[in-house]
Amino acid sequence: MSKSINLLRNLKKEGLIHIVIWAIFLFLFFLQVYFNTGNFSFTFLNFLVVGILVFYVNYLFLVPKFLLNKKKSYYLISVISLVILGLVLIEFILPKPENLLHITELEDYNKPNFRVFRFGLPLFFNLILVVIGTSIKMYSEWDKNIQLQKEIESQKSSAELHFLKNQLSPHFLFNSLNSIYSLTSKKSNDAPEAVITLSELMRYMLYQADNDFVKLSDELDYIQNYLKLQRLRIARNQDVTLNIRGSVLQQKIRPLLLISFIENAFKYGTDFKGNTFVCIEINVNANDLDFKSINLIGNRKQDPENSGIGLQNTKERLQLLYPNQHKLEIEEVSNQFIVHLNLNLTV
Q1: DSSP alpha helices (H): ranges in the chain?
Q2: pLDDT digits over 144-194, tens only?
Q3: Type and span of the H or E element at 280
Q4: pTM score, two decimals?
Q5: Could you give the count of Cα atoms lying within 13 Å of 107 in the half-sphere of its Cβ?
Q6: What count of other Cβ atoms lies within 10 Å of the Cβ of residue 32?
Q7: d(CA 125, CA 51)
Q8: 172: helix, coil or strand?
């Protein structure tokens, strides 16, 4: 659909340019004829017919075949030949005034000064048309390439986002199932609630997270359910906190954008004694969202094959989805891992 729209837009633009150009030339021709002779001259009609031929042979054939394929020598030779052919048509092939015009114009036509005019004017006119036609064609191709590049970038971004989202979802699912497995292995009474909470999370991911935007309120509900699931899993959860402040109204956000930071905090926020420290703070002010995640740097050994997948995905998504609309800081301070994200939610 977008290709058809772009094609129609380009055709309209080119058509308008052609109409304007020929309208200007026709106006100038008729104006000059009117002031010079007071009536229409068949000589000028010959110039115009040949000019149109030269323009469109160059525009439709020579530029695409030679110039756009970087065959400059062939193009130069072809243009010179085309202009000479135009002069030959005017002088020897197209109807002459002696066959179609009054004797007064015939006498002017055969004067020496007019012979120079007969060759000089069409030569100059045809060269101008070649330059104009070449410029229009080059601009048209440049514009098409720009549109094509934008479409390729759009498709690339869409494909990358689809890949990143698909990569993130199994990652989250595996971690959540591990949480529930931990509860069931301990025969915890919280296991049924954990299953219900996970079903809410999966429902959100299946039916809403595939949209380009979701309500900020829904995304925050999703985060709250995730923390509920983690609290059920963790025995010492008194230091697991979530604070959401501000006015959450109709703001929208890209789905699954913050969860990787939170996942990472729980993954590495437990020390060797089983103590977990995770603090999540989210402040909303109009279209400005401030997210901060702080977790203890535990002694858990990172998996070199899989660690950081979620964080890297989120960084890439931020670059694709919120260019020049976010500021991300990640640092380690006093045995704490801190993520600070400021996000402009303006759509």
Answers
A1: 2-36, 42-57, 72-88, 97-100, 103-109, 112-185, 191-207, 216-233, 259-268, 309-321
A2: 888 777 776 666 566 566 655 665 556 667 767 877 787 788 777 778 888
A3: strand 278-285
A4: 0.55
A5: 3
A6: 13
A7: 7
A8: helix
